[in-house]
């Protein structure tokens, strides 16, 4: 009997122990299982691509046609398919996260990543890898001197600087100046002729995430970081695709710099969204473009600033007109589907000369770093109006307001007003400058562009210029006269300086400096002065015209009337 009881007890104990073990181990095993799965998911996420609209579109292009070329890199002489692009983006994303020891989080979480790469395939991989990792791209300007690069880097406060080998000479000075920001030497990607598998994809990041920071000059003397989100970028690209009907049959010859929206959105993002091929050139060279156009049908689109068209005309006149190339050049350019001019006013003589040579009527559109593209003429050549930038793009709201009173200019009034813009195209903020951001918006949420326009009764807009004389457009670059003045004033020989824009057929405006020298300093000359200033600022900001004066006229407030200065010294350049 007692033996039976003890056996029963033993069995009960065994059962209890089993239950206890199960009670402890099942949650433990479940916990371990879930943790492993989470870690596996994170590991997978390190190399997988978020389903952002641009990336999903690229995946579909790759699935539709495994051989579809996304980028032709003219410097490398290599072509890269959409498939390879996504695979390389996945690899670089992983490298970036590993470098920053963020494999566990698998997310840059809006950390800024600055990169310096020439216009080419590696630039695109850097940009997409940062986006895939959840970071904010800060594309650095390839022609900026060290001081300007340091300004952008200090202001954007990046977690990492990616340097293409041709910029490796900047590594030591950057590290000396910014010892806490690691830099990363990019190993350039090479064309992979073997079959490439697509990386895995995971759920999208929120589109409200910050994605891109472009440095732009404003009415202050320091450039500001203009921040756009994935929603902005997707909208800006998508509305161009709709308006200009980009397709996967398009082939763009891309010659624009890649630290501004013209090259980044119109050139890269919209083309890649629609499955087109982008042929990337390191910089604009008229001989190369004409040579490519002579090969009729090998490209379909070209986007540029008016100075580029002016250079193309000059090159044609000097080297192609009346030669055996003339017919091919004219016919090749005529065959293009879409040739667009923007970023600055297109002078009528340039427009007419280009039409005479190529038969193309340049499509004009209006845009800005803060809004992407806002207004555009139509695809139909017949609907393009001389001197007009056209009508608001789909989804973009545009209005004109009176400069003094803020009253909204009624439709059909043909009265000049300030352009204000609203829509998903409009940027999110100036980086870490909440007051500057607020200042540029009306209380009812419209962005104040600072440009003046008229609108005809048919709704077409005609840009009249900028309200501020302190903003100069030269070669399509916006330049702050105040920034140039501040940098010039740092030179010993300069006591006072006024920087103005002079009307110019080739450049739109030229940067001119009126200088009063410090007594006793050697007389300044333009060429050595330009050389000296190249240490301080990008080449396109440096004055190309110099006027030495004994006295600069100011009003009782000590202010200079820049319009009067231009009238006084360059009466024909107003
Ligand atoms: C270069 N130089 C300039 C200059 N750019 N001078 C005045 N203004 C400029 N913008 C100087 C150089 O320092 C050099 O001087 C000399 O001119 C000859 O240089 P280059 O090599 O012949 O010029 P190049 O490099 O060919 O530049 C010309 C250009 C370039 C038109 C190709 O300026 C360019 O790519 N512009 C596009 C800018 C752009 O993308 N803007 C879009 C912003 S977005 P030296 O002394 O060294 O001989 C935007 C929104 C929108 O506006 O609507 O799109
Ligand atoms: P950015 O700030 O460098 O992006 O330059 C934007 C500015 O370029 C606008 O505010 C306008 O002043 C000017 N701009 C852009 N497109 C045109 C155009 N088609 N005609 C005249 N000015 C233009």
UniProtKB/TrEMBL annotation:
Occurrences of domain AMP-binding enzyme C-terminal (ranges): 483-559
Listed InterPro entries: AMP-bd_C (IPR025110), AMP-bd_C_sf (IPR045851), AMP-binding_CS (IPR020845), AMP-dep_synth/lig_dom (IPR000873), ANL_N_sf (IPR042099)
Gene3D superfamilies per the UniProt record, alphabetical: 3.30.300.30, N-terminal domain of ligase-like
Domain of life (superkingdom): Eukaryota
SUPFAM superfamilies: Acetyl-CoA synthetase-like
Residue ranges constituting the AMP-dependent synthetase/ligase domain according to the UniProt record: 62-431
The UniProt record lists the keyword Membrane: yes
TM segment ranges: 12-34
Annotated GO MF terms: medium-chain fatty acid-CoA ligase activity
Keywords linked to the UniProt accession: Membrane, Transmembrane, Transmembrane helix
GO terms classed as biological process: fatty acid metabolic process
Protein name per its UniProtKB record: AMP-dependent synthetase/ligase domain-containing protein
Organism phylogeny: Eukaryota, Fungi, Dikarya, Ascomycota, Pezizomycotina
